[in-house]
Each structure stands twice: as structure tokens, then as C-alpha cells.
Amino acid sequence: MTKFWQVDFHPMEAHTAVIAAHPYWTLTPVARLAKCGTAVTRAYSQALRSGPPVEAMTHWARFSFASDAPPFEPGDVPALGSLGMGEVFTVPPPPLPLLDLPDQDRRRGLLDFLHDHLVRLARARHWQTDPLEKARQTVVAGDLRYMLRSPLKISPDRRHRAGVTMEVDGNGDAWLQLQVIDDAGRVMHASPPLMTHESERGFNAVRRTLCWQGRSTVTLNAWPLDEAFGPEGGGYYVADVDGAAESRVPLVGRSETTVTARPAPLRHASSPRHAGPQ
Q1: Burial per residue of 241-255, b for 16 or more beta-carbon CB atoms within 10 angstroms, e otherwise
Q2: Is residue 271 pLDDT above 90, yes or no?
Q3: Alpha carbons 267 and 232: distance in angstroms, whole number
Q4: Could you say which of 56, 152, 205, 263 would form a disulfide bridge with 163 (CB–CB 3.0 to 4.6 Å)?
Q5: pLDDT, tens digit, for every residue of 114-168?
Q6: How far is CA 39 from each of CA 66, 73, 115, 144, rounded to the nearest angstrom?
Q7: What span, in angstroms and rounded, lies between the C-alpha atoms of 250 and 147?
């Protein structure tokens, strides 16, 4: 048997700002609902992964939204993970008025929708439902937030430690913050929110780029993956802890001269990409 631990709504991966700026992409209300559910589905997946196991034939499931989809019926044929399959369904979306609710209420509505569909799937597949309820409780206890934190890296003179935190907001967009603290735990530098990728794989790539270039200068690439819908030139960030200076410098063709932070232009792809299994 396989441990089931991942679920998503198949959202568009690009940041909302990238989608809005693209000449051909449109974030429809249904697509926006799927994207708004990213924090909830990621948090639920994280809780399943670390909680009691759900024994299944595959490790992942997907509920794609379509207004003309028939009512959800799991059927009686399980997906086989050994063949690369997941439990994939096209289902009617949650009620569109969820988009008009405050962020926390919208997250709660999307969590209820997700949990209800997973419980129905579990009963059809004869899975244990207690781990699903435990995962739901974990997400609620975590304030319906999805965050990842890196280990701290110590500076060469051992006076400072630097780490990054990634959080997916209520729009389904991921933001990164670099923070530097001293030996007493005081915050010596905190970056502005930096556009980043919402996957755990992307975060692991980001945190590996965190590097001390001297006793007071720390660098980070907030978008190290070669994605077509990220900031043009990447998301290179430099912080001088002693001087309290910061800059964001394009990775492609950048010189050694420090550039003042400014909004990064966005790169476009011809067609949107949707988040897939990690």
C-alpha cells in the first residue's frame, strides 16, 4: 500500500500580478477559486504527510473545477500510483460567492469543500477517514495558513543568523521574506515580500541559495527555478546587515554594481501552467 498525502485544486501557478499583466491569460472566477485554495490544499497536504497514514493505492488526488462538471462521483476503480496515476476528478466548483467573503472565511469554505470531497473519496475507496479528520483539525489549528521556514545560517563572524520564510497568501501567491537576527534574537534586517514559487521543491531550491558573502552581507535568490512566469532575470536579493542596505539585482547579465530595489519586470509564457503533484 501507499501513503496518501497530497491533494490540490490544479490552480494556475503564476502569481496573480503575472496573470493580470499577461495579454492572453484570464483568471476567471472559477480559476480564481482554485488558486485561492492553494494555501488550504498545501496545508492539508502537509498535515497528511506528517500525520497518521492514509493507506491507499496512490499518494495524490486532484479536484479540478469546471462549471459544467457533473456532480462528484468517485466511482469504484482506484487510481494506481505504480502506474503514475492519481485520483483525478473534474468537479463542480465551490460556490462563487466565497470570493466575496473575507480571506479567512473563504479559506474555511474551501477547506470544508476539500475535506468533504476527500471523505467521500475515502469512503468509496475504503480508506480510513480518521487521518483526514486529523489533517483538517491540524489545518484549522494552524489558522488555515501554509508556511515553510528554513534553518538559520550563521555569518562568518558568528554575530548574525539568516533564514527565510515562505507563505502562500489568500490569493494563492507565494511570498518570501529574508530575516537576519543577532545573538540576542533581535531582528537586524527583514526584507520586503519577495515573489517566489509556491511549491516545497521551489522553497528548497530557494533556501539553498541563501549565502553569506562576508561578515555582514547576505544574498538570496527568491526565484531560482527557471520558470517562465517569474520575475525577469530572477529574484536576486542582497542585504547589508550593518549598513541596512538592500537591493534586488537581476541574475541575468547583472554587473557587480549594486542596484536600488525596484519592481522587477515580469516574464511571460505563451500558455499558463497549472500546479502539479510535487
Answers
A1: beeeebbbbbeeeee
A2: no
A3: 5
A4: 152
A5: 999 999 999 999 999 999 999 999 999 999 999 999 999 999 999 999 999 999 9
A6: 20, 25, 14, 7
A7: 26
